[in-house]
UniProtKB/TrEMBL annotation, chain A:
Catalysis: reaction(s): glutaryl-CoA + oxidized [electron-transfer flavoprotein] + 2 H(+) = (2E)-butenoyl-CoA + reduced [electron-transfer flavoprotein] + CO2
Pathway noted in the entry: Amino-acid metabolism; lysine degradation; Amino-acid metabolism; tryptophan metabolism
Keywords: FAD, Flavoprotein, Oxidoreductase, Transit peptide
Cited InterPro entries: Acyl-CoA_DH_CS, Acyl-CoA_Oxase/DH_mid-dom, Acyl-CoA_Oxase/DH_mid-dom_sf, AcylCo_DH-like_C, AcylCo_DH/oxidase_C, AcylCoA_DH/ox_N, AcylCoA_DH/ox_N_sf, AcylCoA_DH/oxidase_NM_dom_sf
GO MF, any single term: glutaryl-CoA dehydrogenase activity
Protein name in the entry: glutaryl-CoA dehydrogenase (ETF)
Residues annotated as domain Acyl-CoA oxidase/dehydrogenase middle: 149-240
Automatic annotation (TrEMBL), chain B:
SUPFAM superfamilies in the cross-refs: Adenine nucleotide alpha hydrolases-like
Keywords, in A-Z order: Electron transport, Transport
InterPro entries tied to this protein: ET-Flavoprotein_bsu_CS, ETF_a/b_N, ETF_b, ETF_beta_N, Rossmann-like_a/b/a_fold
Gene Ontology molecular functions: electron transfer activity
Protein name in UniProt: Electron transfer flavoprotein subunit beta
Family: Belongs to the ETF beta-subunit/FixA family.
Domain of life: Bacteria
Pfam families for this protein: ETF (PF01012)
Domain named Electron transfer flavoprotein alpha/beta-subunit N-terminal: residues: 23-210
Amino acid sequence: MHANGAKQAEIKKKAKEDRFQYHDYYQIDDLLQEDHLLAREAVRAWVKQEVSPIIEEYADKAQCPTHLFKQLGEIGAYGPSLPETYGGGGMDEIAYGIIMQELERGDSGIRSMASVQGSLVMYPIYRFGSEEQKRKYLPKLATGDLIGCFGLTEPDHGSNPSGMVTNIKDDGDAYILNGAKMWITNSPMADIAVVWAKDEEGIVRGLIVEKDMKGFSAPEIHGKWSLRASITGELVFEDVRVPKSQVLPNVQGLKGPLSCLSKARYGIAWGAIGAALDCYDSALRYSQERIQFDRPIGGFQLTQKKLAEMITEITKAQLLAWRLGTLANEGKASPAQISMAKRNNVHMALEVAREARQIHGGMGITNEYPVMRHMMNLETVLTYEGTHDIHLLITGMDVTGLNAFK
Amino acid sequence: MKLLVCVSKTPDTTTKIKFTSDNSELDTNGVQYIMNPYDEWYALVRALELKEAQGGSVTILNVGPAENDTVIRKGLAIGADEAVRINADPQSSLNVAKQIAEYAKGEGFDIVFFGKETIDYNGSEVSAMVAELLDMPFISYASHMEMDGNNATIKRDIEGGVETLSVDTPFVISAAKGLAEQRIPNMRGIMMAKRKPLKVVPAATFDDPVATVSYELPPEKGQVKLIDPENMDELVRLLHEEAKVI
């Protein structure tokens, strides 16, 4: 651990200062509460101190800064909107969104570490678990003493989870679990996995699988050009005997995992704004410092067009997220409304990243600036938690009443 | 130990400073505010460390209007037990010092903490004034502090060296870098801060002998002129005629 600490210090010393400034063009801060602003300031300070100095090096080497798992627990980034009795923060949904925004301002991979733990592991245990399961797992997940992952997507079933083949068979006081899951954030590091599998009647059930259960492995997926600082893997189950006490008792069917995804997608709708803000902020500063033809490039109309459109789109996304957060606090945010915000805001962020990359010129492709890293990360964010196209079809189905999925 | 930490609200360090049209006040439009870093990172955290080691309580105090509550709440989120806001528009250093002393004189604080300076007007005056008004010893620019019973050993960085002092409570101290390390509040602390008391005290009335007349920004930096290394005559001419340094 000491060697690791010394390495962190060495990396931090070499890193450039994170000069990020927040942009609130429509004074949306006036709509926020004191605890929202304090949460934002605290997470931003943590990101500037712990993430920004190291993230380029970890992304470059495709390594996960695993020491941040515990720190994310210490600042309270896991399940901030869950009740304090189970180790949550007791905060509202807007605070949760703002925390995700600030984490993703640092890196989408760091935000993914937190949103998987909070929305896809703690939330289903809280919502569908037994009292015993909640007491056993939630406080340790909240502090980061346990790391969790979420297994829904399979190698042959991504956008169509209902086709899953992972299954459980009754064996007395346990189920026998077989199958495989793919693209699982945190899985090689995880102590527990919330796994969705079909029972003998074809009904989807949720199980909490522990890493030392016999027949369970989680190999890492290598070769990603995106979310390089986040660890991703598979889940492989070969006749894993899972005690029946590990089944989530209070849910059956796909609505279980889909309700978790709604939570996570909600956080992504906010998180993507963070990545966009970081790109815009870097581009705006670069446009004022970079001189061509004897004046800052920010003075040229084509640069101004890019910057003006970027802040316009960011502002629209901020308003969408704020309104969605207000609806979520009232328990009124529909899955289709969440789909619209996730799709719009992630696409917005990716477009902002691409425009920001152009403003940075050649420097934009290097890790001297955060832009290309954000852009590559956002290609994943555009696809995971419901692809860009699937969310479009959800909106389409919602407004027409007609299902275009199949 | 009963500890008081006096905190200021200051513009964020990245703020672009502008003044109102008659140059008599800071133009606060678009300015984001933070707790003065010397108050937060060093004074408040060292006070919290003392409380954690020896027991007692930490009160934070701010002189300012209701808009300052978010900054005060941050101090509670970091770990202070209670907060007091003296409801006054902070004007001159002397007026702020008198407000603080008026509140603190009957409260029996063992140590009154300040940051060594406030990063907006960089006055470094209030702490010394409060010490005088409370008739307490004052140690400025403290970068290290150890307590033994009611005696403190304090180090302060001085020109070319370090000075070590010994002082008994009660005393006033201003905190420099090194006294403690920044603590980032966590979400639990932020939610707990909502439930901690923030008492608003009416301002006392004092004559204020000092008034700000105007502010001026430093002159803008001129363009950098690049001169061909072969053309020394031009360099000499510019240094003589434009820079007027030779």
